Amino acid sequence: MNQRSRAEFFLFLCTFIWGGTFVVVKGGLDDVSPMLFIAIRFAVCLLLFLPLALNPLRTVNTRALVHGGVLGVLLAAGFIVQTIGMQYTTASKSGFITGLLVIFTPIFQILIERKSPRPGNVIGIALVLIGLYLLTSPEGSSFNLGDALTLICAVVFGFYIVYLDIVSNVSDPRVLTFMQFAVTFVIAGGGAVLFEDRRLSLTTGLIFSLAYLSVLATVLTLWLQTRYQKDTTPTRAAVIFSLEPALAAIFAYFVRHEVIGALGVLGGGLIVGGLLVSELSDRLFKTGKKSGVEGG
């Protein structure tokens, strides 16, 4: 196995793990309230990541703390609305709707970084909107509160990606990561204490969910993505990451027996197709100059 193939295998492993998070969260919510769930998850992440962050934290500057703090607020907001929304929608729909962050990312790049949209972004957005309508159409599974909250999550994560792109080159990534874990833990924990009817049943299933989400879906995938994404092209990595919604639907079908119906399958396919067109814009629509940057 050559270097690029090895890298793409590990990036697919990351995507596979991320695809499973939707059914894992859905199952975990049977035993714990949403914000408490997030707080415990990120407390574990914080403890696991602390040894890597100790040295840079000794010489941290105010700018890095501010950047990490803003990222943490965005990350916490995205996870909170997504996890609360998961109580009212299915794991498969949550996976597809969360995947729309790939579409919202270039929109925020246009608004914030003044970067022109690529032709594929426009076509991709159109395909995704049609797919979202079919996925949540009245004939299938109507658009509900959970879908709306998950859509807000996708918007927040789209903004998060653009802001991360802006600040990641000027602040230590270990500090940014640690701050995101810490701020998300504080906000979710505070929200659980102040606003939530807290519940916690420490079952085997919940322990598995927390281990999966903290160790595999956060710390391990963060390290694998950081280590191996540089050994392939951004476009090839984006194609691999775009498989996440489809993998989420497959997990939901086999683990939770969720069926999204024929219109849902068609809508999900259009969403994945739209994500791919948006991500592959530079290849599909050759232009004389490069515009925009990679999404998701």
Written overview of the protein:
There is one protein chain. With 296 residues, the protein is mainly alpha-helical. It has one domain. The protein has 13 helices and no strands. Helix 4 packs antiparallel against helix 11. The longest helix has 26 residues. The C terminus is likely disordered.
Strand and helix layout:
Elements: H1 3-28, H2 34-58, H3 62-85, H4 91-98, H5 101-112, H6 119-135, H7 145-167, H8 173-195, H9 204-228, H10 234-241, H11 244-256, H12 261-279, H13 281-284
Helix pairs in contact: 1-4, 1-9, 1-10, 1-11, 2-8, 2-9, 3-7, 3-8, 4-7, 4-11, 5-7, 6-12
Note the main attributes of this structure.
single chain, 13 helices, 0% strand, mainly alpha, 296 residues
Helix content: over 70%
Q: What structural category arises from helix and sheet content?
A: mainly alpha
Oligomer class? single chain
Average residue pLDDT: 85
Number of domains: 1
Biggest sheet details: none
Short recap of the structure:
The chain contains 13 helices and no strands. It has helices at 3-28, 34-58, 62-85, 91-98, 101-112, 119-135, 145-167, 173-195, 204-228, 234-241, 244-256, 261-279, 281-284. Residues 288-296 have low confidence and may be disordered.
